[in-house]
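re: that complex we talked abt at group meeting.

here r the seqs, copy pasted straight from the sheet so there may be weird spacing, ignore it
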Amino acid sequence: VPHHHGLPVYHGPFHARHAERLLWRAGFGPRPGEARRLARHGLRAAVKSLTHPKSHGLRGRPPRVHGAPLAPRDAWGHDHLWWLDRMVRSEAPLVERMTLVWHDWFATSVATVDTKWMLHQNQTMRRHALGSFPALLTAITRDPAMLVWLNGTENSRWEPNENYARELQELFSLGADSGYTEHDVRDMARAMTGWRNGWKDSVGYYAFRFDPGYHDTGVKRIYGHRGRYDWRSALRLVIHHPAHAGFLVDKLWSYFVPHPPPRATRRGLIRLYERSGRQIGPLVEAILLHPALHAGPAMVKPPVVYVAGLLRALHRPVDTEDWTWICEQAGQKLFEPPNVAGWDDTRWLDTATWRARWVAANTALEKTTVNPDPPKHHKPLRESPERAVQRATGHWGHPALSRATTRRLHAFAHHCAQLEDEDWKRDVYPALRQNALRMLVATSPDLHTS
Amino acid sequence: MHCRDYTRAEALRAAARAGNGLPAIEAGMPVPAGTGLTRRSVLLRGAGLALSVYGAAKLPWFEDGVAEAAAAPPGPVLVQVFLQGGIDSLTLLAPTADADYRRLRGPLALAEGAGTAATADPRLRWHPAAASLAALDRGGRVAVMPAVGYDHADQSHFVSRHFYEVGALDANARTGWLGRYLDRHGSPGNPLQGLALDYSLAPALAAARMPVATIDSPANYTLWARDVWGEVDTALQRAYPALGRAHRRGEPAVRQAADAAYQSGRLKDALKVFEVGDENGDGEPDRDPYGTPVSARYPQADDPFPDRLAALAAMLGRGLPLRCVALTAPGDYDTHADQASRLPDQIRLTFDALAAFQRDLDARGLSDRVLVHVWSEFGRRAEQNGSGTDHGAAGIGLLLGSRVRPQMLGEFPGLARLDDLGNLRATSDFRALYGALLEQWFGVDAAPIVPDAKRFARPALIR
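got the structure back, here u go
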């Protein structure tokens, strides 16, 4: 059995459908033909192309809506469109996907934070996407959006505010019930005191800074240690807490594989994290190579991943503002997670969000539907039911479909053929059927999962 | 707690001890009461409404569960409203007479004489922004748990909220307490029995076996496809649920997608009555799809909460077979800072909308069928932190409705004897409340659904 840093590596066949799953889990799905090309290089080279991309650029030209470039800082919903566009055009999809992971992990929202600072935070997360976790945690602790979101600048030596200290430990680094106490939360809050900002009507929050005069210099007791901790030394305590590495490994793994890691794998990942100087990249690489990802069960795609993937498959740019409200209804408006715990990745699909995904597929297709009423000199569409299914699947870049789905698609295509009991229907129905089949492919359980 | 009252739970236990088992339909259930209708006419009315819902169009699922459930006599409905973030109970219901109140609350304290005294304990005063709630209280439609919680309260939003959702102090439970109720007493054909009127499913409704639904709004729950119409569209509308159905035995993620497709198809048919066109193309529906009575007077708001309550009343008015409904109240109650400027507007909108919902139900003759439970994951710290409050322990819970027995459920514990973290002590337990709701409102045995309920005396909630 092949290994990577002592961790098992998947060694079964690596066909286009395996590469397709890898591209969905580690990015935003394949562009047409991409999965087949990637499969030819084998698993290790495929993973390397994701963890060490040749380019961090964006493919093609920046999109326009209503004839104008996106205005992420100024126009409502354009922050969402701006990031969705990066997901669609990125040559480094794993970096973009990890940025989304960190957004969910350190969930901060435009509900109370200026878009300007959300975009600033987004660049910070992208810069640290596959780098050192302590460096990322340090950057997030002093990040203006986070300082506003969890009241870091309301936390002073006179009036400590526990908001950041609590979530820092519970959600960001250690996990609930992992051995720290309510007393630790309170003294952690004292250690984190000292951040300030200014506010002006014209610019909003500005001048974020550490002001020693606001910092509580007294002795704190955290995890049984005593000292005059400040934010930097307190973060070191967090990183060295015995629960930290395991928490990080479990949580990171959960973004890529639906079941918890096997015990030996978990141990191996913890070791890898600690030996690599607490780097994220090697962990992600090991997870992307792991048999549990390639041979294990499917995962539901997060809504923006699904939408970005539809657009990638169609080579369609982000050219309409509709994606903001559609993704919101599907349960994932970027820069606006539901709360500080991020999105609930176990419950992406219900009757409301499934319908929004239907709307997403319908919108993605709007520029390429087959016109059932073509101009007079065009011949009406004629295609066999088999050809119709093949063409509809091809429209989405030939994603791998289960037998159950393929059977249903054929049954539908044949049923529609039987409805053509008049001449005009023979001219019109094949176009309607082709459009319907494309919807059925895009909304099948196969396309919502990978 | 008021545990000396002779409750329905005791009657049920007595029946069970006598070997009779639990009665299928019990006296005291709100089916005929207050409607002026006999059970037979209720049955007929239910069937008539079901026909008005399903009779107009040939619908693929006509024979199946939703229609069948709609034809059954209308049963009790529990509506849960979640105040997300942990509402500051000491703001909503301020203990202004408490000797420690002004010292602990500083700038957050109510002005002397502000607000309205609670009927069951005049030492506590409703915040002026909760005037609508105070009016419901005066009208005898409110039961208050001024300090509901559990021992050793967890101060994490997510852990504590999860406990409330699953109805147990169990971090690993996967089904919600209402989901388990539906698993035992629901129908495999009726996704509307557990309805989240929200952007995503409320975890309390998560069931292991029975279908439940989520809708943002029942109006225009359609699934149309561009350049697909006529017979081909009819075929498509059957094909996508069938495609879901074909994967119902798939692995869990596939099954989630498959169930959502299948249930969406059913729901679309059930909600056809709320389809409203936009003939004049102004982007607004041509008429109010809900037929909301003028007397309801829902507040205008950007937040969808008032509209969702109006929709809920309309769905009940149409005889749709709802049982457990979950909504999220407007706003974010996690007021670590700027509490005085943020909190009152949220409270006002939430309770103005809930009061309008009561008026709406009254006008439709439905009040006796509907019980509203307002809850939050915890209360907040007794001592303020400068401009807000940090996480606390016991908090406030409310039951609203015409069938509610107005009372304090558990006394206000006072600010003089806080727990060792400076938080309010619980004087009632949420599991006792759930047990009592299951027994007295739904008329079922609580033991298999909320096993911990047996550790507590159950208060008499219903009149």
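couple things i noticed - The beta strands of chain A are 3-4, 7-8, 64-65, 68-69, 195-200, 204-210, 220-222, 225-227. The longest helix of chain A spans residues 423-442.
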